[in-house]
Design a protein that fits this description.
The protein is mainly α. It has three helices and no strands. Keywords: Membrane, Transmembrane, Transmembrane helix.
Length: 79
């Protein structure tokens, strides 16, 4: 009976090691390093330009709308 116990234990440890090895292979995620996207810089620049020149933009492209806007009350959300 003691021999049977040892073989079961060895099989259990072997099975555990096998499952550990397989799970490490299955759940390995490759690491991908990328440069920061340049479009984020452009996006922030575009938003800053719109905020800085909003009144001039409205005046140039929507001249009929410009007189009806109180630009002292125009605010932009913080980004």
């Amino acid at each position: 009976m003691q021999q049977k116990y040892k073989s079961t234990y060895a099989a259990g440890v072997g099975g555990f090691i096998f499952l550990l090895l397989i799970s490490s292979l299955l759940f390995t995620v490759p690491l991908i390093l990328e440069k920061k996207a340049d479009y984020m810089k452009h996006d922030r620049l575009k938003k800053k330009l719109i905020q800085e020149f909003f009144e001039e933009f409205i005046e140039a492209f929507f001249p009929n709308l410009h007189p009806h806007i109180d630009f002292s009350k125009v605010t932009f959300p913080a980004v």
